[in-house]
Write a structure and sequence with these properties.
Structural class: mainly beta
Number of strands: 6
Number of helices: 2
Helix content: 10-25%
Radius of gyration: 17 Å
């Protein structure tokens, strides 16, 4: 398993890397506070994944939502 090393003045902490449904990489910080005493700051949660999913991919900035690889979009012809 791949890890990222977080260092402060006196310590090093290993954090696991997770791979998303479209091969994007993330850092699992679920045990960060309990193991290091640190928390994170991410205003607007722009860099935070709220859950792990093996079937869904979301990129809000690009307007992408896929479920099992299939783009999810409203069929506009049914709304007009």
């Amino acid at each position: 398993m791949e890890h990222i090393t977080l260092k402060d003045d006196n310590n090093e902490f290993e954090l696991p890397v997770v791979v998303g449904t479209e091969n994007e990489k993330g850092i699992d910080i679920s045990k960060l506070r309990s193991e290091t005493g640190y928390i994170t700051l991410d205003p607007g949660y722009g860099n935070t994944g709220s859950c792990k999913s093996n079937i869904t991919f979301i990129d809000g900035e690009k307007g992408i939502l896929r479920h099992r690889g299939i783009p999810m979009a409203y069929p506009l012809k049914n709304w007009l």
